[in-house]
Amino acid sequence: MNSIPLSVYLVLALILFCIGLFGALTKRNAVIVLISIELMLNAVNINLVAFAKYGAKPGLTGQIFSLFTITVAAAEAAVGLAILMALYRNRKTVNVDEMDIMKR
Amino acid sequence: MQNAWLIPLLPLLSFILLLLFGKKLKEASAYAGIGATLLSLMLAAAVMLGQWGGESYKAEGVWLSIGKHAVTMGYEINPLNALMLVIVTLVSFLVHVYSKSYMRGDDRFHVFFAYLGLFTFAMLGLVLSPNLLQVYMFWELVGLGSFLLIGYYYFKPEAKAAAKKAFIMTRIGDVGLFIGIILLYWQAGSFEYDEIFKAIADGTISSDMITLIAILIFVGAVGKSGQLPLHTWLPDAMEGPTPVSALIHAATMVAAGVYLVAAMYPLFEASSAAMTTVAVVGGITAIFAASIGLMQKDIKRVLAYSTVSQLGYMMLALGSGGYTAGVFHLMTHAFFKALLFLAAGSVIHAVHTQNIEEMGGLWRKLKITAPLFLIGALSISGFPLFSGFFSKDEILMATYGDGRYGLFVLAVLAAFFTAFYMFRLFFMVFAGSPSQEHGKVGESDGPMILPMAVLGVLAVLAGYLNTPWFGTFLADYLSHGPVRFAAEGEHGPIWIPILATAVSLAGILLAYLMYGKKKLSRNWLSRSLPSLSTIVYRKYYVDEAYDATVVRGTTGFSCLWSYVDRYLVEGAVNGTVSLIQWLGKRGSYMYDGQVQRIGAVAVAGLVIILLFFAAAGGYFS
Description:
- The complex is a heterodimer of chains A (104) and B (621).
- Chain A is built from three helices and no strands.
- Chain A is mainly α.
- Chain B has a two-stranded antiparallel ribbon. Chain B has a two-stranded antiparallel ribbon with strand order 3-4.
- In chain B, helix 2 runs antiparallel to helix 3 (79-102), helix 3 (79-102) packs antiparallel against helix 10 (242-251) and helix 15 (323-351) packs antiparallel against helix 16 (369-381).
């Protein structure tokens, strides 16, 4: 059980985070962007759990914190999708490129 | 004597009064000025009488203390400055009276009297000062008064230029004076006259330093008294109203330089090099200015060059050890030169021109002015029994006794020139027939005649204060002062007064033959030596030389720096501005409202911060 070192978890989380970041910054479809954000959140969760087990002060705090994150992420996904629906109704598109009203 | 501090304050009071209410008082402004100076004059006369055999008096309080050093302010009465007080208040009072009539009808009548009050205050304050710092303050204030009065007709471009020139030229001298005062404070540890003199007497200051300080202080005197390298402002200052010329540029302010040298006399006496400098500058100025005076055509300019020349005489006397002679000539000169200026003002008032070639035959028309002018001219020429005769004799004796025979010859020559140009002026203005019609030429009225008459009497009688025949009252009087000067009991050879008389008579005679009788052609010099006469007429091209060197040099230098400022400094500033603007514009292109671009930029920033911390070893290290 202890054969897998902390660094492996961290590298996994790093890869996951980078994929999520890449997706969030490059994909044009808003749904994919939301999914990418979820990926980044989960990368964080892996970190939290990994440090809870192998960190300087092992304990349950990290795991509980990650549970909170998952809950909040679920709520966030629901709100995000709702906004997306509203946007789609208004503009007939979910393409992120076309949503540039912040400049105006 | 304890009330001496009132003397300068009364004119100041008149100045403030006229500043506040002058517009309402209008012509009545004159009475404020006249009243104030009359009171000052009476006080000054009382002070001087008290000084006759009395002790000198000093009162002062701490004005500023810095650490252990205290700077004091106060006033001091000694024989020398009591004499100056009387001269200044007397001439100022007479000029106030004269101006009341001379300036009548001028729009800024009250301003003129306000300025006169300010100037008189400054001059009296200068004379009363017990320490050099206070002297310096009033010295500058005097310069300001002179500036304002020269530029009184500020709408005339010449007057404006003359005022600026006077201010800047004297300022050059003031820098020397200022450095001298600082050095003296550094060496003697005090601004007070008596402590400085004590330090010099004790030998705490090295002799080289004394020479340096004395020469620097003399530079200040050179600027104020129009001595040779810095004399050019004084003739130009004649653009001011004529009473101002009489007060400032003949009797009082220009004498401030001589007064300063006299007041600091122990300092100068301690250094033979400084004494030589004073004597040589004075002697050369005397002959130089007198020769320019020979050729001038403007009545006031002749008198101005004559003033420069006479101030040179005073410096020559002081530099030759003739303390009494210098102060004596200062006094007699104040009277007869003020008289000459006021008389010239009266002439100008009558004929409305200053060009002496356009005058002539005024003897019969100006029945009172003309004899008074003659008295002044005889006095300045050193005609026997007039005051100038006695004081000039003293100077010649002092110069001869000092052993600088070259300067003695210059002084005798300058005396000849003086007699000649004064009588050239006199004959051209008053003798012969009018060369031009001036309309109705009327004698001036009472307020103008009265001051001239008083000065006329003084121009004759002042000389008897110090004569070899009746007694040397002035020398005895001055010897009570803090300045211990060598007794001038031993009188020079008897031939000196005879020579001086002969020279002055020769000058008068030559002028009479050339301009009075017209026996001699008046332009034989310009015909036989055209180049020399042109050089003299153009005042030795001093102004032109200054213009070509100092003025052009300064203009060129500042032009260079204005380019540096415009292109280098401003270029750097503008470059920075446009760089920032360019960066901002680039940055704003990146922001196109795309959420993902914003996110990418944020991540890039985060990455940069992280990289920085990785390189630096962490935020907390």
